[in-house]
């Protein structure tokens, strides 16, 4: 089972890995396996496990996509130091396939988490808050917007 | 075109995810730990931004012993690699006095000029005694000797252009010349896998940079059409100048550029062609004149030919060859010529002697033999590796062959296993290559004998089995024996 990897035109080494085949599958598999892990470690109901996965996913992806700025290496001389990873991918172009996929995943996770917990509080409240923040952060209008200067540059 | 098994792609992403997660955990625990310790550097700004350093600290340092290995002999077919020890898990490495004699598959020693040569070395020593090691001056002050003038003529004649200018450092040739050739209002279209020196030169020039898909002339045409139609950003005025930058052999892929198509497209749209022949000059082509000779492109069609002397000529420095007007302009404006120290005279003599050997002007046919041997060696090695089931990149005739590793854990595993068996290979990972596509890069030399290559193949096959990098099915073993009577694997 082979796939062909076409070389991309993305010069930003921080984001170009996302254009190669296999990323989406890996992302979904990591979510699935972390659900299994949570289930086996905490001995909780599937709904609580999905809620935990959803909230952990929110924390990790918010921090890495929308909070951390710049690139983890110094070769590009800091040209991306003011942009978060979300603003860097696809060279800043909005509404590409990758961005649409990354917007859909938290929503699907939210639906699964709410369904398996039967829409009970307080899980519903936390899940809704998380998905709201996630989806709003990914809007095209929020490109390079820093509300109240949070996470702005010094 | 790289073909990856799907499972390998998924597992590679997962491995990198795990490595990044552990790196972040360690960073956070370091942050907590340092909270309690007093910091006697209050008020000082940090030397480097914490996030910029992340990859080096948390991923590169863990496998640091695979990179930057010091050697203690000339980079010939066999080389003495200094052994290093680490007491703090590879954060720092100390050299020991022990060395191991390893087969050298990492040096760019394409024609074997990297060690004592019976024609070149006596002449270099003479030149060292006459002119001393350094000219101690820039070219325009007092740094041009008769050897420098002879070198520039020799290079221009060899490459097939009217004139040439020589710089003391190959990287600096690109990064200092490109800003002189083009500025704001110009457009540089460069191949997506161009070397960092070109990227730095292009960024330093202030021109707009656009990238086209690696070695794809149709995409280059699309980009050219779009850019010419749009014009400069915001003002939409026509571009002042368009330069297309390509390389002869791409050092990480071993692929040869599709030069005839690219040159014809550039002629059609009136763009200049800048050809970087760092790895291809002296290594391919019937008389070693590089990719133009190999692919039958007239050198008059290429506006700027650049190359380095570090790979095939066993020296240092780089050159730019072009029309007389271009070289005259560069001599008046290029900072590497005006301010940088000129190339050391013995090194220049080494280049002249190496070119004379290649062209047969030393009275023997060693040059032609070397060229034939490197071609034979490269084709033999590549064919055997592919038969064993490795994924090897690069075209036929190219002396650079990367073997794909993919997984980040296989990078140090392959490298250390080869070193244990006395084989010195260079492994490359992110960010020099894309994240997914880590590789071990083999450089074949004309000074490798057939026995050396067979030993190397045995070691690589064993290391490949241990690390599981034979991604393709091996070719079925033939019933008849090999010509030299030695069965492989």
Structure annotation, total helices of chain B: 15
Total domains of chain A, how many?
Answer: 1
Strands side by side in the biggest sheet of chain B:
4-10-9-8-7-5-6
Biggest pleated sheet of chain B:
7 strands, mixed
Overall pLDDT of chain A: 89
Short description:
The complex is a heterodimer of chains A (154) and B (489). Chain A has helices spanning 23-42, 46-67, 85-88, 97-116, 123-137; one strand spanning 2-5. Chain A is an all-alpha fold and 154 residues long.
Could you walk me through the main structural features you see in this protein, from its secondary elements to its overall organization?
The complex is a heterodimer of chains A (154) and B (489). Helices cover 53% and strands 3% of the residues of chain A. Chain A has helices at residues 23-42, 46-67, 85-88, 97-116, 123-137; one strand spanning 2-5. In chain A, α2 packs antiparallel against α4, α2 packs parallel to α5 and α4 packs antiparallel against α5 (123-137). Chain A has one domain (17-148). Chain A is built from 5 helices and 1 strand, in the order βααααα. By secondary structure, chain A is mainly α. The model of chain A has no long low-confidence stretch (mean pLDDT 89). Chain B is α/β, with parallel strands linked by helices. Chain B has a 7-stranded mixed beta sheet with strand order 4-10-9-8-7-5-6, sandwiched between helices. Residues 480-489 of chain B have low confidence and may be disordered. In chain B, α3 packs antiparallel against α12. Chain B has helices spanning 6-36, 54-60, 120-131, 146-159, 170-181, 196-205, 217-230, 259-269, 291-295, 324-333, 335-338, 345-359, 366-388, 410-420, 450-467; strands at residues 2-5, 78-85, 94-104, 163-167, 187-191, 208-212, 242-247, 272-276, 304-308, 318-322, 400-404, 423-424, 426-428, 439-443. The interface between A and B is large, with 33 and 38 residues. Chain B: It catalyses: L-serine + hexadecanoyl-CoA + H(+) = 3-oxosphinganine + CO2 + CoA. Chain B: Pathway: Sphingolipid metabolism; Lipid metabolism; sphingolipid metabolism. Chain B: Its EC number is 2.3.1.50.
């Amino acid at each position: 089972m082979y796939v062909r990897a076409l070389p991309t035109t993305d010069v930003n080494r921080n984001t170009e890995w996302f254009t190669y085949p296999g990323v989406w599958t890996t992302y979904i598999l990591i979510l699935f396996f972390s659900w299994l892990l949570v289930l086996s470690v905490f001995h909780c109901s599937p709904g609580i496990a999905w809620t935990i996965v959803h909230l952990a996913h929110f924390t990790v992806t918010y921090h890495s996509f929308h909070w951390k700025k710049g690139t983890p290496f110094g070769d590009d001389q800091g040209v991306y130091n003011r942009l978060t990873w979300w603003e860097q991918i696809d060279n800043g172009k909005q509404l590409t396939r990758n961005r649409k996929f990354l917007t859909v995943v938290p929503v699907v996770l939210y639906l699964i988490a709410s369904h398996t917990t039967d829409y009970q509080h307080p899980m519903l409240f936390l899940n809704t808050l998380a998905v709201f923040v996630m989806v709003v952060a990914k809007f095209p209008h929020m490109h390079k917007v820093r509300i109240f200067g949070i996470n702005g540059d010094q | 075109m790289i073909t990856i098994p799907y499972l390998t792609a998924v597992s590679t992403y997962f491995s990198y995810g795990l490595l990044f997660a552990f790196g972040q955990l360690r960073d956070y625990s370091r942050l907590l730990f340092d909270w309690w310790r007093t910091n006697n550097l209050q008020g000082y700004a940090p030397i480097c931004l914490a996030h910029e350093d992340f990859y080096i600290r948390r991923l590169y340092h863990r496998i640091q012993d695979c990179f930057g290995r010091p050697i203690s002999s000339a980079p010939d077919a066999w080389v003495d690699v200094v052994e290093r020890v680490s007491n703090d898990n590879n954060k720092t490495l100390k050299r020991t006095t022990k060395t191991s004699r390893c087969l050298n598959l990492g040096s760019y020693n394409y024609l074997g000029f990297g060690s004592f040569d019976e024609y070149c070395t006596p002449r270099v020593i003479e030149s060292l005694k006459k002119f001393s090691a350094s000219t101690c001056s820039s070219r325009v002050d007092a740094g041009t000797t008769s050897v420098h003038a002879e070198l520039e003529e020799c290079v221009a004649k060899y490459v097939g252009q009217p004139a040439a200018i020589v710089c003391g450092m190959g990287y600096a040739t690109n990064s200092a010349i490109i800003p002189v050739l083009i500025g704001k209002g110009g457009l540089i279209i460069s191949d997506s896998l161009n070397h960092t020196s070109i990227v730095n030169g292009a960024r330093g020039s202030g021109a707009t940079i656009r990238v086209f898909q690696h070695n794809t002339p149709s995409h280059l045409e699309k980009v050219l059409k779009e850019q010419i139609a749009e014009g400069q950003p915001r003002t939409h005025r026509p571009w002042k100048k368009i330069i297309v930058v390509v390389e002869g052999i791409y050092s990480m892929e071993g692929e040869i550029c599709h030069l005839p198509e690219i040159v014809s497209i550039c002629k059609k749209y009136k763009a200049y062609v800048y050809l970087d022949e760092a790895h291809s000059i002296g290594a391919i082509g019937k008389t070693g004149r590089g990719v133009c000779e190999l692919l039958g492109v007239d050198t008059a069609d290429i506006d700027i030919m650049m190359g380095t002397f570090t790979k095939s000529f066993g020296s240092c420095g780089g050159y730019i060859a072009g029309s007389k007007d271009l070289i005259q302009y560069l001599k008046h404006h290029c900072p590497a010529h005006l301010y940088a120290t000129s190339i050391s005279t013995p090194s220049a003599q080494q280049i002249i002697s190496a070119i004379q050997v290649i062209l047969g002007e030393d009275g023997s046919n060693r040059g032609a033999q070397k060229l034939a041997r490197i071609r034979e060696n490269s084709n033999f090695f590549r064919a055997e590796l592919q038969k064993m089931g490795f994924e090897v990149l690069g075209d036929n005739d190219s002396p650079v062959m990367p073997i794909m590793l993919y997984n980040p854990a296989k990078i140090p595993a392959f490298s250390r296993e080869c070193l244990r068996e006395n084989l010195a290979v260079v492994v490359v990972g992110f960010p020099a290559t894309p994240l997914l596509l880590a590789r071990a890069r083999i450089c074949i030399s004309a000074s490798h004998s057939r026995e050396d290559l067979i030993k190397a193949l045995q070691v690589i096959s064993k290391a490949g089995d241990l690390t599981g990098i034979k991604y393709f099915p091996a070719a079925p073993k033939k019933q008849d024996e090999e010509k030299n009577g030695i069965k492989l694997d």
